[in-house]
Amino acid sequence: MLSVLKDVFKNQWFRDPKESPTYINDNAVKIRAGMLLAIPLYMAYTLADVIFGPSWSVLENTTAVDTLETTWEWHTIYEVQATQRVYDYTVQTWVLFYGLFEMLAGLFVTTSRLSPTIYLASLLAKKDAPNWKPLVPKRFAWSIGATFIIVCLIFFNPDTFANWVNTLSASKLLPTTENYMPDWIPLTLVWVCLGFMWLEAILGFCVGCKVHALMVKLGIFKEECLECNNIDWDAIARRKAERDAQAAKSEG
């Protein structure tokens, strides 16, 4: 167990942190995606409550008084004491910042040392044979996730972002008293992100990797896109060792 922990802290989910191109254990990637799946689930619940939930709350211990009037649909109108719901997105903002940190931490070998989920996923993946896949397509996929998170951060903190933009531009490009982003944008992105992470964690299908491969074929990206095949590197090493042993035996 001690040797396993030592290897995890040294190499994490990398086959060799110093090699180029860099390969990571896809089994650990799936485990990490399952862990981080809690973030879009929480954000989807929050957005559904904000967008589709009631805007007013009736005060407790109050009496509803019949106004003796009805709506056009013949619904009786009552008079009550109610307050408009006020939302505090502090918790959601910190959760999104952590999700953004995790997306950015996985982009590079050095920053991955800061991610607790990478260490934990690498440790949990040690019980199975590694499935090595290139880092570059995964890096593109996590960049998409980081973009989605940034958009959601702007939705939950429109005044802060507007103040930054207005200060930098020395003008009033964005309003600071209302949310200028339509509700459907973050709601759609959250569900898309949830679907992408579910496909990665459960089915092992990386949508971002497929998009990256398409971009390479179209010539948008120049770097080589290595096929995400399950290469048994241990078997390759054993065959190489057998060939070396056979060569040494024949020479002897």
Overall, the morphology is elongated
> What does the oligomeric state look like here?
single chain
Q: What do the pLDDT scores average to?
A: 84
Specify the number of helices: 11
Largest sheet entry? 2 strands, antiparallel
Q: Which regions are unreliable across 5 or more consecutive residues at pLDDT < 50? A: none
Short structural summary:
This protein is mainly alpha-helical and 252 residues long. It has helices spanning 2-11, 26-36, 38-52, 90-105, 109-112, 116-124, 135-156, 158-169, 184-203, 207-217, 233-251; strands spanning 23-25, 56-58, 65-70, 76-79, 82-84, 132-134. The radius of gyration is 26 Å and the shape is elongated.
Question: Mind explaining what this structure looks like?
Answer:
This protein is mainly α. 59% of the residues lie in helices and 9% in strands. It contains 11 helices and 6 strands. The strands form 3 sheets. A two-stranded antiparallel sheet has the order 1-6. α7 runs antiparallel to α9 and α7 crosses α10 (207-217). The longest helix has 22 residues, at 135-156. The model has no long low-confidence stretch (mean pLDDT 84).
Strand and helix map with partners:
Elements: H1 2-11, E1 23-25, H2 26-36, H3 38-52, E2 56-58, E3 65-70, E4 76-79, E5 82-84, H4 90-105, H5 109-112, H6 116-124, E6 132-134, H7 135-156, H8 158-169, H9 184-203, H10 207-217, H11 233-251
Antiparallel strand pairs: 1-6, 2-5, 3-4
Identify the notable features of this structure and list them briefly:
mainly alpha, about 60% helix, elongated, about 10% strand, two-stranded antiparallel ribbon, about 250 residues, two-stranded antiparallel sheet, 6 strands
